[in-house]
Design goal:
Layout (H helix, E strand, L loop, with lengths): L2 E3 L15 E4 L2 E5 L4 E8 L6 E8 L2 E4 L5 E5 L14 E4 L2 E4 L4 E8 L7 E13 L19 E4 L1 E6 L4 E12 L3 E12 L3 E10 L5 E11 L2 E9 L6 E10 L15 E9 L2
Parallel strand pairs: 3-13
Antiparallel strand pairs: 1-7, 2-4, 4-10, 5-9, 5-11, 6-7, 8-10, 11-12, 11-13, 14-15, 15-18, 16-17, 16-19, 19-20
Length: 272
């Protein structure tokens, strides 16, 4: 059975389920020009030690027909999958964090015989509290409590000529009396993921902006994106909704690859 982890895009803020262990940045960009990166893992507890281990899996966002987005981890990797798993290493890979402690984890890429393009991976940071009778000074990685938490971040490696673009093929909307629900069909072009924003703007007949909603978006292959605009009860009349997808986004983990900007407009009429 294929493994699908239910991780929303919002989870990429990357707090663990209990908020004790945090990871930053949430995205790491590497390339032939810069093969080394890092993440900072922090224990926010002032009383408990946590043991941490880091694994790497090939995965990317997918969506169903309703627009629900999850991270898909294939059971096996094919030769055509742009996976970075085999050539990425973490130093250290296992460690214990004392209360309020921090650990800088170095990430090193050692690729061989890669074609031009972008390669992906998902570092999975596992953490669990160290049993009370264990000393934080002892590197006893196996002596922890039973509950394990996971943070999943994104990593990509770029080689040679890389490009990205977006094909915005469809846009629909509905209104239920309190909110507008938009549905957009997106398809990536080029040989790299399209990382950016989807910006939805609601305007009235006078072109006055009523509401503007911006969300981050990551399109690795294809994505059905659902956007909700909380409006309350709208007065009768004609409205315009403009949806723009762009790569105008900054990240602490590296440079966003610039691609095209795509825009679609749809009308909505509220009857008396």
């Amino acid at each position: 059975m294929k493994k699908i982890f239910l991780i929303s895009i919002l989870l990429m803020v990357c707090l663990t389920a209990n908020g004790q262990v945090t990871v930053a940045p949430v995205t790491v960009h590497l390339s032939d020009a810069d093969r080394n990166g890092y993440i900072l893992v922090r224990n926010n507890s002032n009383s408990a030690s946590w043991e941490v281990s880091i694994d790497m899996k090939f995965g990317y966002p997918v969506s169903d027909s309703s627009g629900k987005t999850v991270i898909h981890f294939p059971d096996t990797e094919s030769e055509t999958d742009p996976s970075a798993v085999k050539f990425i290493s973490f130093y250290p890979r296992k460690f214990i964090l004392s209360p309020l402690g921090e650990q800088t984890v170095r990430i090193a890429a050692k690729p061989k015989n890669l074609k031009d393009g972008e390669y992906w991976g998902r570092p999975v940071i596992k953490s669990k509290q160290v049993a009370a009778n264990d000393s934080a000074g002892k590197e006893n990685i196996d002596a922890g409590l039973g509950v394990e938490f996971r943070s999943v971040i994104a990593l990509n490696y770029r080689r040679g000529k890389v490009s990205t673009g977006i094909n915005f093929s469809n846009l629909t909307c509905s209104y239920n009396g309190s909110k507008i629900v938009l549905f957009a069909e997106l398809k990536r072009e080029g040989n790299a993921a399209y990382i950016g924003n989807i910006v939805s703007t609601l305007s009235d007949e006078k072109s006055d902006v009523i509401k503007n909603v911006s969300q981050e978006i990551s399109v690795y292959y294809e994505l059905n994106k659902r956007v909700e605009i909380e409006t309350g009860k709208l007065a009768p009349g004609k409205y315009t909704i403009t949806v723009q997808v762009n790569t105008d986004r900054e990240e602490t983990g590296g440079n966003i690859l610039k691609g095209n900007t795509a825009e679609r407009t749809i009308s909505l009429t509220i009857e008396k």
